[in-house]
Amino acid sequence: xxxxxxxxxxxxxxxxxxxxxxxxxxxxxxxxxxxxxxxxxxxxxxxxxxxxxxxxxxxxxxxxxxxxxxxxxxxxxxxxxxxxxxxxxxxxxxxxxxxxxxxxxxxxxxxxxxxxxxxxxxxxxxxxxxxxxxxxxxxxxxxxxxxxxxxxxxxxxxxxxxxxxxxxxxxxxxxxxxxxxxxxxxxxx
Length: 189
Fold this sequence. Notes:
By secondary structure, the chain is an alpha+beta fold. The protein contains five helices and six strands, in the order αααααββββββ. Among the domains are: about 80-125; about 130-185, Roll (Nucleotide Exchange Factor Grpe, Chain A, domain 2), CATH 2.30.22.10.
């Protein structure tokens, strides 16, 4: 067979030369006709209707779940601060009582203020707030913000010598880095 005959033969449906004698290639139009006939039978079957019903019910159930989850999430966000606010109201009440007393005895006023400060700190600690350690520690830009470098003789480079503003962790996340003064070893010039 020449190459020209091979090319023209490929466009017509023919028997597969490599297959058994009984197998014959089916044309595309015959396949489509068979699929249409079988799909009509499938759509009429009880199994198809049952599967379609299950699918629709599952889709509706998922949609309801999605809507319910969104409502619950919104409710949680709205009420998340309720417990904290109630605890902070106790501190505000204590401050109001302290401001209502005469400040004749400054020692008592100072003790009362320290008690309120400690109560406030305990509430925040219960919620996961912790101070970032600073003085004497090595400077770490993840936890500290250097506001100044000071030349000193008795400290190594990068050691924190003073805390300007406290830094805090909330659980394991840095809420606010500590503002610090960092030592720079004094060089002999």
